[in-house]
Design brief:
The structure holds two protein chains of two kinds. Chain A is α+β, with helices and mostly antiparallel strands. In chain A, about 35% of the residues lie in helices and about 15% in strands. Chain A folds into two domains: about 80 residues, Roll (Ubiquitin-like (UB roll)); about 60 residues, DNA polymerase, domain 1. Chain B is α+β, with helices and mostly antiparallel strands. In chain B, the strands form eight sheets. Chain B has a seven-stranded mixed β-sheet. Chain B has a five-stranded mixed β-sheet with strand order 13-21-20-19-14, sandwiched between helices. In chain B, strands 1-2-3-4 form a four-stranded mixed β-sheet. In chain B, a hairpin with a 2-residue loop joins β25 and β26. Classes of the chains: A alpha+beta, B alpha+beta.
Chain lengths: ~150, ~725
C-alpha cells in the first residue's frame, strides 16, 4: 500500500490504500464519508459526484493521483448545517424522494451555480445529463436549481 | 375469479398477507416502559420531555411513508410536528406483516394509526381531567397540550406518567376531516434535511465496527453455478481475506469494497461455469414462443357474452398486436445487506420491502429462529418492487455464515443489478374488437401471452390467481362491452421474475388504451368522446371480486382533458393523446400527453394528470408520487432488457436509457377527491404515460407504435 495525502472538506488525511482505488471508495470505506453514493461505478449515474478543486467530478472515476493536491468537497462539507443555498432550495422545493441520488445532484447543482450563477434551462439540462434519479425528481431538481439561483419560484 | 386483493395475499407468501394480515391494532404495554414513558401501543412512545417517538410500520423507499404515516398519527393525537422523532419498525411480534408494496401503505394503516393516535389522545385527556377534577368532555387537545375548561394547559410530557395509568378507551372518537390541521396540508419530507446533508443512512451506508465487505462472482446466466475456480488469484489481491461459496456464487470477502470488487474480478478470470437451465434463453426464442401462444390454449380471466359470435356478427372488426419487453428495476442504490453473526443471535441491516420474510429467510440460512435475528430496516435507495425480493439479504446471511467472523456487508455492483434482477417479463398482446352498425363496441378480446410473474415468485408453483394477476389492467377493462374475453397464455421462462412498479398493469393498459385509440381513429372519432361514451353512465361496476366506480374514472378523465385543453388548436406538429385507468378499482387516474417529433426524436412537452385516490394525507407527497410515477412510466417507453445465450445484453445505465432531466416533460397534477377513504398513489400514475404519449404521437404523426421500446428507427 501507498500513503496518499488527501484534503477532504478542509481536512488533511493520510490514507493507506492501493493506488488504483477510486476516490469514491476512499471516501466511503476509508474515511467513512458515506454521503457520496455508489450507483454504477461506470461514471454514468452521477450518484458519486463530488467537487475536485471546485469542479463537479464523479468520484467513482477519479483516481487518487488526480485527487491529490486538490481540495475535495463532499456533500458533508458543502455546509456545516445544510445552509448552502442549494441545500436550502432542495428542502424548500421538497425535491428528494428516496434521496439516494440527491447528494450527487446537489453537488452538481452547487458546481453549476458556482460557475454559472444564472443558468439557462439548457445549462441545467447539460449539468444533469449524467445523473439518474429513478424516483423521478427531475422537475423539482430544475425548480430547486432555479430557486437557488434566485430565479423563478 | 381471483382478485388483485387475493394476489396481495399470495404475495405475502407465508400466509401473513399484505393487507388483511396486518397486525397493527393498538396494544397496551405494561411494566417498566410505562414508568418512564407513555407507550400506549406499538406506534407511540411519549417521553416526559414531551417528545414523541413514532414507529413507522412500512418501509420508506421514497414514497413518503416516514412523513405520511406519522402525519396520520400526529393528527389524531394532536402532536406538535416539530417534537416528533420517527423510527422504522422492526419485524417481530409487534409487526408481523410489514410488507410494503401495491400502493397500500396509507390505505392499510389509515384506520389503525388513527385509532392508535386517538387512544393516546383520550388517555392524555383523561389524565388531565383527573388532575383538574373536571369531566373528560371538558378537555380539549392542541399541538401537544391538553387544554382545560378554566384555561388550564398542560404539556403531554407532563402527563405521560399519569396517562399510562388510565384505562384504555375501547372506541376512541376519531377526528372529523374538517378539524384536521396536519392531514391534507402539504408537509415537507421528514428526512429532507438528513438527505441534503448526506447524513441519511441507506443500507449501503451502514458501517459497523470491524465491518468487512463482500462482492459476489455470479454466473452471467441466472441459476448457473461455478464449476472450477482458483481462489488463489483472488486471495493475491491486497485486502482480500476469503473466498467462500454460497448458492448464488462465489463471495470474495475483503477489507474494503474496492478490494472485494478487485478480488472478484481476479477470480472471474479463473472460473468456469455450469450455466444451467437458462443457458440458451434468448429474446428471439421467447418472442417466437409468445407468438405461438397468441393462438394456443389460455386461462380465462374474464368472459362475458359470446365474444367469438359477436366478432363474427360485427359490422367492423379491428385487430392489433402489442409487444412489451423485459424490464429491470435499476434502483440507483444497488442491493446490499450487512450481517453480524453471533453464536446465539445475529443482526441484519438492509433496505427491504419485505422485512418479515427477509428476517425469516436470513434466520433460516443461519440456522436460527426468526426471533434470534434482529432486522434493522435502513432507508432504501429506491424499491420499485425490487426489494420485495429477499434474495440479497438471504445471500448476505449465507456469506456471513460461510465466512464467519465479524460483520460483513455484501455489495452488488451495477452489472449484478442488470444481470441478476427479479425482472418484469416481456408480454405479447393480441386484441380484437367488434363494432356494431352504430359504432358501439360489441366485442372485445385481449390475449396476454408471456411469463407468469407469480409462478416465479412462488418458486415455480402455479397459483390459481395466475391468470387474474397477469391480466391485471386487461381483465378490469372498464368499457361497456357486451361480449368480452380476456385470457392469459403462459410462456414459461428460466429467468427470475418479480414485481416492478406498476406490475402487469403497465403493459396491459398500454395495449388496451392504445387499442382503444385505434378504434376511435378507425371510426374518425374523438378519443375522449369515445372513452366517455364507452364508459357510459354506469356507477359501481364489478369485475370478479373487484369493483370500480366508473363515475370517478370519468371524472378524472374529464378533469385531465379539460386542464390539458383537449381539443384546442395545437402548435404545428404537436399532438395530444390520453389514457385512463381504475387501478385495482381503488385509485383513478387519467393523463393527457402533448408531444411532437423534433429532428426524428420524440419530444414529450407536457403530461397533465388527474388522480382520485380519496382524501390525501400529504398533498406534497402525492404530487411527488405522481411526478415520479410518470417519469418511471415514461422511462419504460425507451428501456428494455434483452437476452442472448442466457445473458442480459444490458449491463449498465448506458444500455438502459432511463429518462434524464433534459427529457422530462412538464408535469401538472390535479387532484379529485371522490371518496372518504384513502387508497394509494405510488403505482396508479405509472401505466398511463406510455399509452398517452403513443396516442399523442399518433395524433401528431399518424404513426402507430405497437412494439416497445420506442427506438429512434421507429420514428423514421
Amino acid at each position: 500500500m501507498t500513503t496518499h495525502q488527501l484534503n477532504v472538506n478542509g481536512r488533511n488525511h493520510s490514507v493507506d490504500v492501493d493506488a488504483d482505488t477510486p476516490l469514491l471508495w476512499v471516501l466511503r470505506d476509508t474515511l467513512g464519508l458515506t454521503g457520496t453514493k455508489f450507483g454504477c461505478g461506470q461514471g454514468v449515474c452521477g450518484a458519486c459526484t463530488v467537487h475536485l478543486g471546485g469542479k463537479a467530478v464523479k468520484a467513482c472515476q477519479t483516481s487518487l493521483q488526480e485527487a491529490a493536491g486538490h481540495a475535495i468537497t463532499t456533500v458533508e462539507g458543502l455546509s456545516k448545517d445544510g445552509s448552502h443555498p442549494v441545500q436550502k432550495a432542495w428542502l424548500a422545493e421538497d425535491v428528494a424522494q428516496c434521496g439516494y441520488c440527491q447528494p450527487g445532484m446537489i453537488m452538481s447543482a452547487a458546481a453549476l451555480l458556482h460557475h454559472k450563477p444564472h443558468p439557462t434551462d439548457y445549462d441545467i439540462d447539460a449539468a444533469f445529463a449524467d445523473h439518474v434519479c429513478r424516483c423521478g425528481t427531475y422537475p423539482r431538481v430544475r425548480s430547486a436549481v432555479k430557486r437557488a439561483a434566485g430565479g423563478a419560484k | 375469479m381471483t382478485s388483485r386483493r387475493d394476489f396481495l395475499r399470495v404475495m405475502g407468501g407465508t400466509g401473513t398477507g399484505l393487507v388483511l394480515g396486518l397486525c397493527l391494532e393498538p396494544r397496551v404495554r405494561a411494566g417498566e416502559v410505562a414508568k418512564t414513558e407513555f407507550h400506549p401501543n406499538v406506534f407511540l412512545a411519549l417521553r416526559r420531555d414531551g417528545t414523541v417517538r413514532l414507529t413507522v410500520p412500512k418501509t420508506e423507499m421514497g414514497q413518503g411513508v416516514r412523513t405520511a404515516l406519522p402525519l396520520v398519527l400526529a393528527e389524531e393525537m394532536d402532536l406538535d410536528w416539530a417534537r416528533i422523532e420517527v423510527v422504522n419498525a422492526q419485524p417481530g411480534p409487534d409487526f408481523k406483516s410489514m410488507q410494503t408494496g401495491g400502493s397500500t401503505s396509507v390505505s392499510s394503516t389509515w384506520l389503525p394509526l388513527r385509532r392508535a393516535g386517538a387512544t393516546a389522545r383520550e388517555m392524555l385527556k383523561a389524565a388531565a381531567a383527573a388532575q383538574w377534577k373536571v369531566g373528560l368532555e371538558q378537555c380539549r387537545t392542541g399541538n401537544g397540550f391538553v387544554l382545560g375548561p378554566a384555561g388550564q394547559k398542560v404539556g403531554y410530557g407532563d402527563l405521560a406518567e399519569d396517562a399510562a395509568k388510565q384505562p384504555v378507551p375501547k372506541d376512541p372518537p376519531l377526528k372529523k376531516a374538517a378539524d384536521y390541521r396536519l392531514v391534507g396540508k402539504p408537509t415537507l419530507r421528514f428526512d429532507g434535511k438528513a438527505i441534503v446533508t448526506g447524513k441519511a443512512i441507506f443500507g449501503l451506508d451502514v458501517r459497523r465496527p470491524g465491518q468487512r465487505y463482500a462482492a459476489l462472482l455470479r454466473c452471467p446466466v441466472p441459476g448457473g453455478q461455478p464449476r472450477t475456480w482458483d481462489a488463489a488469484k483472488a486471495m493475491a489481491v491486497r485486502g482480500v481475506q476469503a473466498v467462500v461459496q454460497v448458492p448464488s456464487g462465489l463471495a470474495v470477502v475483503a477489507s474494503s469494497t474496492w478490494a472485494a470488487f478487485k478480488g472478484r474480478d481476479a477470480l472471474a478470470a479463473t472460473t468456469s461455469w455450469d450455466e444451467g437451465a437458462a443457458k440458451d434463453f434468448s429474446t428471439a426464442g421467447l418472442e417466437a414462443r409468445m407468438r405461438t401462444a397468441l393462438t394456443g390454449p389460455a386461462e380465462e380471466a374474464r368472459k362475458e357474452g359470446d365474444p367469438e359470435q359477436a366478432l363474427e356478427a360485427a359490422s367492423r372488426r379491428i385487430e392489433a398486436d402489442y409487444s412489451f419487453p423485459y424490464q429491470a428495476h435499476a434502483t440507483v442504490e444497488p442491493m446490499n445487506a450487512v450481517v453480524q453473526l453471533g453464536s446465539e443471535s445475529a443482526e441484519l441491516w438492509t433496505g427491504t420491502q419485505s422485512p418479515n420474510h427477509a428476517q425469516e429467510q436470513a434466520a433460516e440460512a443461519l440456522g436460527f429462529k426468526p426471533e434470534q435475528l434482529k432486522l434493522n430496516v435502513a432507508l432504501l435507495g429506491g424499491g420499485f418492487g425490487r426489494r420485495l425480493g429477499t434474495d440479497f439479504s438471504t445471500e448476505a446471511a449465507q456469506v456471513a455464515k460461510a465466512a464467519g467472523g465479524g460483520p460483513i456487508q455484501v455489495v452488488w455492483d451495477r452489472e449484478d443489478e442488470f444481470r441478476h434482477d427479479l425482472y418484469h417479463p416481456a408480454t405479447l398482446h393480441r386484441l380484437q374488437a367488434g363494432l356494431d352498425a352504430k359504432g358501439a363496441l360489441s366485442a372485445w378480446t385481449h390475449r396476454v401471452a408471456g411469463p407468469a410473474i407469480l409462478r416465479s415468485w412462488l418458486s415455480g408453483q402455479k397459483s390459481p390467481a395466475q391468470a387474474s394477476v397477469e391480466t391485471n389492467g386487461a381483465a378490469d377493462n372498464p368499457y361497456a362491452i357486451p361480449a368480452m374475453r380476456v385470457d392469459f397464455a403462459e410462456v414459461e421462462v428460466p429467468t427470475p421474475l418479480g414485481w416492478w412498479r406498476g406490475i402487469e398493469i403497465v403493459p396491459n393498459v398500454f395495449a388496451r388504451e392504445c387499442f382503444l385509440d385505434e378504434i376511435a381513429h378507425a371510426q374518425g372519432r374523438d378519443p375522449l368522446q369515445v372513452r366517455l361514451e364507452f364508459l357510459g353512465d354506469r356507477g359501481l361496476v364489478k369485475f370478479g371480486q373487484d369493483e370500480a366506480d366508473l363515475r370517478r374514472l370519468k371524472k378524472v378523465l374529464q378533469v385531465a382533458a379539460e386542464k390539458a385543453g383537449w381539443g384546442r388548436k395545437l402548435p404545428a406538429g404537436h399532438g395530444l393523446g390520453l389514457a385512463c385507468h381504475a387501478y385495482d378499482g381503488r385509485s383513478y387516474a387519467a393523463q393527457v400527453a402533448e408531444v411532437s417529433v423534433v429532428k426524428g426524436r420524440l419530444k414529450v412537452h407536457k403530461i397533465t394528470c388527474a388522480v382520485d385516490c380519496g382524501p390525501v394525507v400529504n398533498p406534497a407527497g402525492l404530487q411527488a408520487q405522481v411526478e415520479g410515477g410518470i417519469v418511471f412510466g415514461l422511462s419504460a417507453l425507451f428501456t428494455q432488457i434483452t437476452w442472448e445465450k442466457g445473458r442480459t445484453v444490458q449491463t449498465g445505465y448506458l444500455d438502459f436509457p432511463l429518462l434524464r432531466l433534459a427529457d422530462t416533460p412538464v408535469i401538472e397534477t390535479h387532484v379529485v377527491v371522490g371518496s372518504d377513504t384513502p387508497t394509494g398513489i405510488g403505482e396508479p400514475p405509472v401505466p398511463l404515460p406510455i399509452p398517452a404519449v403513443l396516442n399523442a404521437l399518433f395524433a401528431a404523426t399518424g404513426k402507430r407504435i405497437r412494439t416497445l421500446p420506442l427506438l429512434p428507427e421507429s420514428l423514421a
